[in-house]
Specification:
By secondary structure, the chain is of the alpha+beta class. About 35% of the residues lie in helices and about 20% in strands.
């Protein structure tokens, strides 16, 4: 059966129409299926960078971000220059079209079809916003259709300014900067609201091809050409004037260093690690946290400059390539400054290593911890120890040789002082301030190694866990500690034994400005108050330091009281200085990261102290001088704890007669002296109870034999002798009852018109001082001869009974006082 050609054509046509309708419907479904609601674009969670600020909350030290570094700002804070430049560069018809630019789309579509890569532009600002937030960046025709449809829908439900604000806060500008605020900070180190016209035009030139036009890339010439072209387009569109263009084109643009777009880098990385214990990584990178730290930016810059300025000379003259500094407010524990190395960016010397948080040997800077432990047990600054050659291993002889086959020579321990000299008997005050090693090892033994480590741990030092590693050399710095922790520990000295744990954080708020973490003081009483005050009296005593340091040394301040201690490792690896006032503690370390030795005799006082002093002077200049509270004088009975070492018996004698003092000997004329044979402190002191009874068998102490023999040998071989005090037999015959001045007043009844009283004073010795008081008010005294004194009535003497008190003191301190009632009548 034949089909009519017309019917065949008709059927084919109907079939084609049906297929077309089905295809169009399918295409439409493909476009609209899962199409997001454009009105919810502003509700979409937008990743925001976490910002780390200084303590004022105004200086941004660093932004932590994931793939997108972003800070959202309101439309009112975006300058018109940025808005105009963006419109001129991306979409000059922005305020007139309805979401899409038809001519632009057809032009781009023609090129896309011709080249088959669908990469052409032509998108409006609204379309770009949709692409970056809702439909993605896949280069397909379907995506572009969906993009256009959503752009039209968005324009019907949002204002132009709302769309432009969303766009400027989300568009990528390159270098991980998303949004205009992040771009301004990244490329020019400033807030968007402070951008100039030239800077605005340059940033607006970036979104077209962020990688190609990057200020840090190789196409800077093309970038500046695009910027200038954009300025001309802004003028042609009426946004700016010809003069504006000329001025903007002349402006020299300086970009922030891309590798150094971070302030206080060691501190920032410390904070970064600190907050990682508080929040998960996603929250840190994208949660928009605002972290206000404790850092004093002005002080930080000064610290960085001091370290940087000293570095070249230290390296050339002392062989020290690196240095670190940190400072804390001891009253709060807040970290004020942290410089982890001379240059964070100097990879050759491991500049990114933060030495303030690395383990290093502190040398003598550890000694105050042992001394304060000893002071807590009852030892005093006047306690006498012997700086003489001493062997401290009980299994070695006093001659520094093994006394058993089980012991080798390397096991014997007999340290020396830094100058290889020995000073004989010294006080704990002298020992600490002159940084003497042998007495300090004795102090650690008396204080107890375990007790001293426990003191260190109460002070916040965390690196002394393995007790098996530490012996008596701990006091000389054999245990590695962190500068930051040791500075914090010294902070408890500054506050009478109250430790305020170190903290880098003042406040953390979320992206909405709500506080989620705020600094709260947490003071801990970790040391005995009197022991700390005693330590402070020692560490501020410049005179005790003078025999080793010159009087005007790097630890001395002429206008205020500052406590300080230096430290140097015996192998010249580390040099330290740590010091404090009641409101500031700072520490400096100098050395080499690879533990290579500095030059010989590179002591902390020489290389670290000058840097520390410059820093302290800078900060303290703005503060009123402060005083430490002095310790309460303690009543000590044992001779060696009072500084009397020549014997174990205390005798009180009169300074003048040198005979035994009596009840008539004035206190100021009593001299306490030690009599007998000198011994080591272990002879009369139980090391665990220094204020208790003397040990009945001192030889039971494992150190007694070596210490005792070392002392006796010292006096035998050093050419020095034990000075015995001059004591004359008998009792004080200068200060006796019969030698007291005799005061006589013959007349006690006076008329108001009389002006003076005659007083007779007889004394075996010349009268040095006479004082008189009427009714507790001073009276004028006139001497007429050796025994006669005239007392003038005070002008306000009253009629009636008055009390006259007269005291006379002779040249040897004999004192007599009498009181008399004096009657005054009218006539």
């Amino acid at each position: 059966m034949k089909h009519h050609p017309l019917k065949t054509i008709l059927r084919f046509g109907l079939l084609s129409v049906g297929v077309g309708i089905i295809g169009a419907s399918a295409l439409f479904l493909m476009v609209i299926i899962d199409l997001p609601d454009p009105t919810r674009i502003s509700e979409r969670p937008i990743p925001e960078s976490t910002k780390i600020f200084d303590r004022t909350g105004t200086v941004i030290l660093y932004e932590i971000h994931g793939e997108e570094k972003r800070t959202l700002i309101p439309f009112t804070e975006i300058p018109d220059f940025v808005k105009f430049a963006t419109i001129a560069g991306e979409d000059s018809n922005f305020y007139t079209h309805k979401g899409i630019d038809i001519r632009g789309i057809f032009r781009a579509l023609y090129i896309d079809i011709k080249t088959r890569n669908f990469s052409q532009g032509g998108s409006t600002i609204t379309q770009q916003l949709v692409k970056n937030t809702l439909v993605g960046k896949e280069q397909t025709l379907l995506r572009k259709v969906r993009e256009a449809l959503l752009a039209i829908l968005l324009e019907t439900r949002s204002s132009k300014n709302e769309i432009l604000n969303l766009y400027l806060n989300q568009i990528p500008y390159g270098s991980n900067a998303y949004g205009i605020e992040a771009a301004a900070k990244t490329f020019f180190g400033k807030q968007a609201k402070s951008l100039t016209l030239a800077q605005s035009a340059l940033i607006a030139s970036l979104p077209k091809a962020p990688s190609f036009y990057s200020p840090y890339g190789t196409q800077k010439k093309e970038l500046f050409e695009r910027k200038d072209a954009l300025l001309l387009r802004m003028k042609n569109l009426g946004f700016i004037s010809e003069k504006d263009v000329e001025q903007a084109q002349k402006e020299i643009l300086v970009f922030s260093n891309p590798t150094k777009n971070i302030l206080a880098p060691h501190f920032v990385m410390y904070v970064r690690e600190y907050i990682s214990d508080l929040y998960d990584e996603s929250t840190i990178e994208n949660g928009g946290l605002q972290i206000v730290t404790t850092l004093d930016w002005d002080l930080q810059q000064k610290a960085e400059q001091i370290i940087k300025d000293a570095a070249p000379n230290n390296e050339k003259n002392l062989g020290a390539k690196n240095a670190a500094l940190t400072a804390i407010d001891p009253k709060t524990g807040q970290i004020l400054a942290m410089v982890g190395s001379r240059d964070y960016w100097e990879t050759k010397n491991d500049g990114n290593v933060n030495v303030t948080t690395r383990l290093r040997q502190p040398g003598s800077a550890f000694k105050p911890i042992a001394y304060v432990t000893a002071f807590q047990k009852g030892y005093t600054p006047e306690t006498i120890l012997f700086d003489v050659p001493t062997e401290f291993n009980p299994l070695c002889t006093p001659d520094f040789a093994p006394s058993s086959p089980r012991v080798s020579q390397k096991d014997c321990y007999h340290p020396k002082n830094y100058d290889n000299a020995f000073r004989g008997p010294v006080t704990l005050r002298q020992s600490l301030q002159q940084s003497l090693n042998i007495p300090s090892v004795q102090v650690l033994y008396l204080a107890g190694i375990e007790d001293t480590i426990q003191t260190a741990e109460r002070l916040g030092i965390t690196s002394l866990k393995d007790r098996s590693r530490f012996g008596l050399s701990l006091v000389l710095g054999a245990g590695e500690v962190k500068l930051l922790e040791l500075v914090s520990a010294y902070g408890a000295f500054a506050t009478d034994g109250i430790l305020n744990p170190k903290t880098p954080i003042l406040k953390i708020t979320d992206s909405q400005g709500f506080s989620i973490n705020e600094f709260k003081p947490n003071p801990l009483t970790v040391l005995n108050e009197e022991a700390v005050r005693t330590l402070n009296s020692v560490l501020t005593d410049n005179e005790a330091r003078v025999p080793v340091f010159v009087r005007e040394n790097s630890l001395y301040f002429s206008d205020r009281i500052v406590a300080a201690k230096t430290g140097t490792t015996q192998n010249n690896w580390d040099a330290w200085t740590i010091g404090y006032t009641p409101s500031l503690v700072a520490g400096v370390w100098v050395g080499n990261n690879d533990n290579s030795e500095m030059k010989k005799n590179t002591a902390g006082a020489l290389v670290a102290a000058p840097l520390w002093k410059k820093f302290m002077q800078y900060k303290l200049a703005e503060k009123t001088p402060e005083l430490f509270t002095p310790p309460t004088p303690a009543k000590i009975e044992k001779p060696i704890l009072k500084g009397l070492w020549q014997g174990s018996e205390i005798i009180k004698i009169d300074k003048i007669s040198r005979k035994l003092a009596t009840e008539f000997t004035p206190k100021e004329y009593i001299l306490e002296v030690a009599s007998g044979q000198p011994h080591s402190i272990l002879y009369s002191i139980n090391k665990n109870d220094p204020l208790g009874p003397a040990p009945s068998n001192p030889e039971n102490d494992s150190q007694f034999n070596n210490w005792e023999i070392a002392i006796q040998k010292w006096f035998q071989t050093s050419g020095r002798f034990v000075p015995q005090p001059l004591i004359i037999p008998g009792v004080d015959d200068v200060h006796t009852e019969k030698n007291l001045p005799q005061i006589s007043i013959l007349k006690t009844d006076f008329s108001l018109t009389e002006k003076f009283i005659s007083v007779s004073i007889l004394s075996p010795f010349p009268i040095q001082t006479i004082t008189a008081e009427f009714n507790s008010e001073s009276a004028r005294v006139l001497k007429t001869n050796a025994t006669q004194f005239i007392l003038y009535f005070p002008s306000d003497v009253a009629v009636g009974i008055n009390t006259l008190s007269i005291s006379a003191i002779d040249t040897y301190g004999n004192r007599q006082t009498i009181e008399k009632e004096i009657s005054i009548r009218e006539q």
